[in-house]
User: Which sequence fits this backbone?
């Protein structure tokens, strides 16, 4: 008889059926010979509070949260990690020994570690970063860049209020740039990041000219379906280095897995291939 505990974790969202998170976490469970499972938890918005409180009762070590629960959960858990507080959203819940719930956000970690793994030549001192978009993913990216010491983050969003809110919250390191000036906001930038949904699936490509982006700049896209977005293709055509969105998805899962299963997993080529094949 095996006395090691069987550890449960999962993803709460509405809907959740499209998620690749079970592939990622169950890959690591098998790789590390752990007893456990990561399951999909379709939870309607009106049931979120009850579902979160059921986690300790059902023996869960915790869960991830996705659309539409990431912001609502902030006020439903017992404590919120300062990084999650600044991002304004929770994507990971950990059940503590006493049954209380702690909320974290691993998206900033995921973005930064994906960037460092795939573009080791990037450093915060390389120059300004231009972020297109100011939604939830952009907030995580801005926190990651600001904490890493980037001196100038230009945020350009279709709806100006969200970019201005980021500039107000994060101080002079974040500069809000009007949407009409997005092409010029690439002048002198060392890194361009698309955090909008443009270029994803059936969405039109991001309407952005790369003409003034320096030739040493990197282009990063958070969209990972398709892996090669029109933006990344245009960047490659200009000879620029690129970083796709899949790495962020894989790396954000690592600290969450560690908090539930006690092992910090790695992003291996085998995992990447497995997830790529499921896209
Ligand atoms: P969100 O909070 O809904 O934000 C969406 C962003 O896209 C906003 O800035 C929005 O601008 C902009 N946008 C939407 N339609 C646009 C259009 N037609 N033209 C210009 N801008 C437009 O969503 P999110 O959670 O930040 O996610 C954004 C993207 O990042 C999605 O594609 C998501 O899949 C991806 N993502 C990837 C990862 C990863 O692990 N790789 C993690 C998180 C998110 P407005 O404010 O003007 O509406």
Assistant:
């Amino acid at each position: 008889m095996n006395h090691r505990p069987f550890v449960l974790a999962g993803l709460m969202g509405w809907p959740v059926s499209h998620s690749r998170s079970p592939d990622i976490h169950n890959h690591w469970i098998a790789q590390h010979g752990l007893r456990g499972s990561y399951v999909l938890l379709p939870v309607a918005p009106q049931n979120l509070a009850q579902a979160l409180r059921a986690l300790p009762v059902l023996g869960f070590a915790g869960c991830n949260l996705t659309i539409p629960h990431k912001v609502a959960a902030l006020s439903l858990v017992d404590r919120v990690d300062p990084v999650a507080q600044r991002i304004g959203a929770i994507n990971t819940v950990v059940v503590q020994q006493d049954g209380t719930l702690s909320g974290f956000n691993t998206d900033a970690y995921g973005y930064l570690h994906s960037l460092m793994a795939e573009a080791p030549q990037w450093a915060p001192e390389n120059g300004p970063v231009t972020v297109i978009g100011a939604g939830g993913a952009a907030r995580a990216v801005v926190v990651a860049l600001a904490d890493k010491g980037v001196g100038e983050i230009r945020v350009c969003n279709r709806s100006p209020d969200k970019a201005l809110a980021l500039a107000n919250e994060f101080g002079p390191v974040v500069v809000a740039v009007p949407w009409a000036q997005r092409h010029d906001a690439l002048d002198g930038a060392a890194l361009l990041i698309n955090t909008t949904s443009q270029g994803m699936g059936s969405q039109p490509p991001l309407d952005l000219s790369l003409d003034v982006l320096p030739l040493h700049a990197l282009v990063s896209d958070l969209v990972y379906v398709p892996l090669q977005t029109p933006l990344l293709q245009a960047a490659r055509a200009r000879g620029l280095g690129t970083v796709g969105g899949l790495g962020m998805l894989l790396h954000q899962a690592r600290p969450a897995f560690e908090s539930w299963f006690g092992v910090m997993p790695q992003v291996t080529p085998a995992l990447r291939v497995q997830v790529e094949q499921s896209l």
